Amino acid sequence: MKNYLSLFLLAILIIGLFVFTINGNGKFVNASKKATPSVVSLWGYNNSQLRSSPNTLGSGVIFSKDGYIVTNYHVINNARNIIIKINDYEINANVIGFDKNSDIAILKIDTQLDLEPISIGSSDNLRVGDEVLAIGNPYGIGISVTSGIISATGREYGNPYLNLIQTDAAINPGNSGGALINTEGNLIGINTKIYSKTGAYQGLGFAIPSEKIVQIASEIIKFGKVRKAWIGNFRVTSSQLLIDNSIYKSLKILEIEENKGIYEKGLRSDHHIVEVNGLQASWKNLTQSIKMASPGDFINIKYFDGKKLVAVDIEVKAR
After folding, report:
1. Does the annotation mark 271 as catalytic?
2. What CATH fold (topology level) applies to the domain 229-318?
3. pTM of whole model > 0.85?
């Protein structure tokens, strides 16, 4: 009887593992099928001889049905001619604009092809351990898919303002500008760089979060560049203060330009900023909040005016 019971339990376990494997593979298959048509191969040439060896190669993501494509700035930098390959079609691309700080560039192609824009997912609620797929054109061999997990979020690697996504999905030269997607096939990031001592994949890849991609791409498409966010001209220093028996880390305002930005909301010299968008005030949090905002957005600042704590919403202006 015990032997029959053991065999029965073993059979249930094997069936369960089989179903789990099928479902897991199915997720990747469906996600790849959904997103792959929205990822393109890219070659850059610094001369007019398009049949010469390309000077750069990479990937791009179709952002809109009318031909806007997102890629990395470093992929197209110094390229006089850019060729996009979609399926078996090669199309010339024009640079609409770029932002060096975020390493994002927007290209435009004119084609009669029925383009499939990538489905945009949220990068705000990603969890370490979430499964992801990286899609791109590694070494120029053509569109390929690799799998992995999210290893970390909020990475500063090379840029403290982008909150990069770290993944162990294989990202090799040529993957730059390609898509990082979730298991639903939605874009959560644009693959931008790897950490490697050899130049090849070593399990440390980084992607720009999709929320930042949408913000930057929309700015470039509309204005040809990313307008710089601005909330006034002022100078601060790190400080601490005691309020109601609680110690606050703060940014003390040393100087402030009158009648502009935060001055119009009541902040003055010697006031202490204690929170920025609900986060403890620090130079990093302040500058990151400004960098990640677009003109028309609001940044919430809580400050101490010497008597009480005051919270104000500062409208971000274009500079």
Report:
1. no
2. Pdz3 Domain (2.30.42)
3. no
Phi and psi for 91 in degrees, rounded to 5?
-130, 135
List CB contacts of 80: < 8 A, sequence separation 6 or more.
45, 46, 47, 48
Under a CB-based contact definition with an 8 Å cutoff, are residues 94 and 79 in contact? no
Task: Tell me 120's DSSP state.
Answer: B
Segment 143-198, tens digit of pLDDT: 999 999 999 998 877 666 678 999 999 988 899 999 999 999 999 999 997 766 66
Domain boundaries, the chain: 1-225, 229-318
Kindly give the residue spans of alpha helices, DSSP state H, lying in 162-291: 210-223, 283-291
Say which of 38, 176, 210, 250 is annotated catalytic: 176
Q: Residue count of the chain, please give it.
A: 319
The CATH number of domain 1-225 is 3.50.50.60: no
How far lies 99's CA from each of 25, 77, 79, 198, in Å? 37, 11, 16, 27
The residue annotated as part of the active site, out of 38, 102, 103, 123, is 103
